[in-house]
Design brief:
44% helix
Amino acid sequence: LRGPLDFRAKFGDKAISGLFTIEIIFPDDYPDSPPIAKEIGGCIPPEFHKHQDDILCLSAPVITKIKFSRNPTLIAFVKETVIPYLYSFRHWEMYGEMPYGEYDHGFEGIIQSYKDLFETTADLVVLKLLRILAEGNYRGHLPCPCDSGKRLRHCHGPILLEAAKGTSKESFLYDFLRYLFLKYDSDKKPPPGLITKRIKISARKMLKEV
């Protein structure tokens, strides 16, 4: 689906409008997975939060999927992800800053998105929550890994269940391992118990498939 997208949006006291030529591509399992969007008019430079082939980096993948799963319609996808992206670009172009803030490029940005998603700044808490997703071992009656003193189902459980929709355990395992290797090395060992037997088995299987 491609054509002109004329929008007007406001954040704070700044109302901004724009006209872009957008292409929206639907995955085979739509609406179980969100579409992807491209700007095909040549207005947005490659260095402004774009993937290869002019695919717009609308947000971290897990954030985009959660937003879409809450309202899996084309109109909601455009309003809640595409238009905020276009507004951000116009705001950056006009005022030299991002209106909503921005994630770093690369995996550091993925880490920041997980911290925002789980509402924590603690690397270990994010890793423990990611481990639950990577293992596919959600147990709502157990204590939440964030040490809130609450059971998982009454703390981070709901957001974990949302995050698990439409994203494979292997994707979370990949992020868990990258995060682990980034934060811990030969001089700084991970805490005991963080790497479970199930994680080791899944990691070996992934490496064999690669």
